[in-house]
Amino acid sequence: MSTQLMTDAESFYQFLGQSLSTGSRETPPEALLRTWREQREFEETCAAIQEGMDQINAGLGRPAEEVFAELRRNHGATKR
């Protein structure tokens, strides 16, 4: 089964419809756009965190100290 993602315009259109139906008729368009962008960023951040947690739970993670040591080796940084 194929799932097609909404475009930004479709997503905003849906958000705008929901906002207007819940009493946001007096809210300036700029505020609605800002709220939509903030909500979308929050959702994307949550999805990225969930993806990382899923990878860790699948055994695909690495200890932070190992990653930091590799970064120090690759970039010539010293340990603080």
Instruction: Give the oligomeric state.
Output: single chain
Largest sheet: none
What is the total tally of β strands?
A: 0
What's the mean pLDDT score?
A: 91
Please report the distance between the alpha carbons of the first and last residues: 51 Å
H/E series, N to C? HHH
- Principal-axis shape equals elongated
What is the number of helical segments per DSSP (H or I, 4+ residues)?
3
Structural class of the secondary structure composition? mainly alpha
In terms of per-residue confidence, which ranges show pLDDT below 50 for 5 or more consecutive residues? none
Walk me through this protein's architecture:
This protein has a domain at 27-80. The protein is elongated, with a radius of gyration of 20 Å. It contains three helices and no strands. 0% of the residues are buried. Helix content is 69%, strand content 0%. The model has no long low-confidence stretch (mean pLDDT 91). It has helices at residues 8-21, 29-57, 64-75. With 80 residues, the chain is mainly α.
Comma- or semicolon-separated keywords:
80 residues, 0% strand, 3 helices, 69% helix, single chain, mainly alpha
Tell me briefly what this model is.
By secondary structure, the chain is mainly alpha-helical. It is 69% helix and 0% strand.
Annotate the secondary structure layout:
Blueprint (H helix, E strand, L loop, with lengths): L7 H14 L7 H29 L6 H12 L5
